[in-house]
Amino acid sequence: MKSRRAALLLFAWVFAGCDGKPPPVPVGDAGTRDAGRQTPRDAGPVRDSGRPEDSGTAPDAGPRACTVDPDRVYKVGSDRAGDRTVALAASGSGFGALYTGLPEDGLVARVHAIALSSDGTLGEPRQLTRAGTALRAVSLASTGASWIASWVDNDPDRYEVRTLPLGADLAPAAETPAAVTATPAGEDAPTLLVSERVLLAWIEDDLAGARVVRVRELGSDGAPTGSASAASDPAHQPAALVMGELSAGPVLLYPSTVQGSSGPETRIFLQGLTSTGGMRGSAMPLDRSAIADGTLDASLAPSGGAVVFGVLVGGARHEVRFRAVGGDGMPLRDERVLVEGTDASIAAFAGGYAVSYRAPASGATPAQVRLLLLNELGDVVAEEPVADAMPEGGRTTVRVAGDGQIAVAWADSTGDETSVRLALIACGGGS
Question: Which domains are delineated in the chain?
Answer without folding.
Answer: 2-426 (2.120.10.10)
